[in-house]
Amino acid sequence: MENYNYLFESLTVRFFLLIFTSFIITYISIPVIIRVARMKQLFDEPENRSSHSTLVPTLGGVSIFASIIISSSLFVNERFVDFDLLNAAMVILFFFGIKDDILMISPVKKFIAQIVSALIISIGANVRIPHMYDILGFGEIPYWISIVITVFVIILIINSFNLIDGVDGLAASVGIVSSLVLGYWFYVNEYNSLALLSASLFGSLVAFLRYNFSKKNKIFMGDTGSMIVGFIVAVLTIEFIRHNGIGLINGGKEIITAPVLAISILIIPLIDTFRVFMVRLLNKKSPFKPDKNHIHHRLLSLGLSHAKTTIMMVVANFIFILLAYHMKDTGIDKFILLIVSLALFVSSIPFFIKTKEEKMIEHQAETPVIKPFFSKNPGGSNKKKVNG
């Protein structure tokens, strides 16, 4: 009995058990969800801006939600975060997301659900950003300003995950990178519940990828999945920033540029969202009007497959994380400017490369139209006479 208790008290054992459990729940549940979706004709119908041409179920988020709730309930004993409030916030996002995936609801209703969930976790569970790390000279901030900033950050991250969920594997892969990096930091610094929450998300998304890339049993995570994944990553990110601002529990060294490192971990969804919104505003369009100006859309138009597009963007994500980590002692204002400027430059490169169609159109526009010197009927002199 003592050995049994020790087994489940060991963080390392629970860490791997949780990854395995969340993986198995997602892996087993998705085929059932696909069968139900096919029976009830619950598909994502391709449209003009879609990157797929076949009917695909969009209920993968159901399995992600279920695996995280069940696995974390089984293995998370510590409470650095109030898991009751965390689950309540996720349930709200789950119901609004699944309704949108099946029936479609207005963006305003989803936005309200995101605000409510963000307020629950920031006010109720005190998951918030209390310090600005001397960004533009600001330090500790008042409570309500902290809540406003936190709610904005949560909504931004949720919607940035929603926006990059346009190519197979991308949103899930960015979620895996985020949970892996943040989970490792929480594990090393003994924030056990947050490390285990990261492990739960990691295991679920790895299993989801197997079906997201499948040809026969393909499934999308839908708004349910992207909102749940974005929300959990937002909570992990804010807790990473917060604990680096209030002092580590085990006396470890704080990362003074934690906000910049957090930006680097989420650089793909954040910079894509920022760039797309700026392009739409410059073109005098609503920033919320969908289009095909995302980075992944451009890479697909250049001839890359879904898998190659995802791999390229994830590799770029890791490079930015490594760069940010090795420059963590740089002044924070200069650091933010450098990371954001470099990310904007790199993300713009695919838009300077012309596709075959664009080259052909450009060539046709530049080729002059040469009219023949002699025409068949110059001045009408070759007209036949009509005898009258």
Largest sheet features: 2 strands, antiparallel
> Number of helical segments?
15
Rg: 26 Å
Shape: globular
User: What strand order characterises the main sheet?
Assistant: 1-2
**Ends distance:** 120 Å
- State the low-pLDDT regions, or none: 379-388
Short description:
This protein is mainly alpha-helical and 388 residues long. It has helices at 2-9, 11-39, 60-75, 83-102, 107-124, 143-164, 170-188, 192-212, 222-246, 258-265, 267-282, 295-301, 306-326, 332-352, 356-366, and strands spanning 43-44, 56-57, 131-135, 138-140.
What report would you give on this structure?
It is globular and about 80 Å long. Helix 2 packs parallel to helix 8. It contains 15 helices and 4 strands. The strands form 2 sheets. A two-stranded antiparallel sheet has the order 1-2. A two-stranded antiparallel ribbon has the order 3-4. Helix content is about 70%, strand content about 5%. The C terminus is likely disordered. It is mainly alpha-helical and about 400 residues long.
Topology:
Blueprint: H1 2-9, H2 11-39, E1 43-44, E2 56-57, H3 60-75, H4 83-102, H5 107-124, E3 131-135, E4 138-140, H6 143-164, H7 170-188, H8 192-212, H9 222-246, H10 258-265, H11 267-282, H12 295-301, H13 306-326, H14 332-352, H15 356-366
Antiparallel strand pairs: 1-2, 3-4
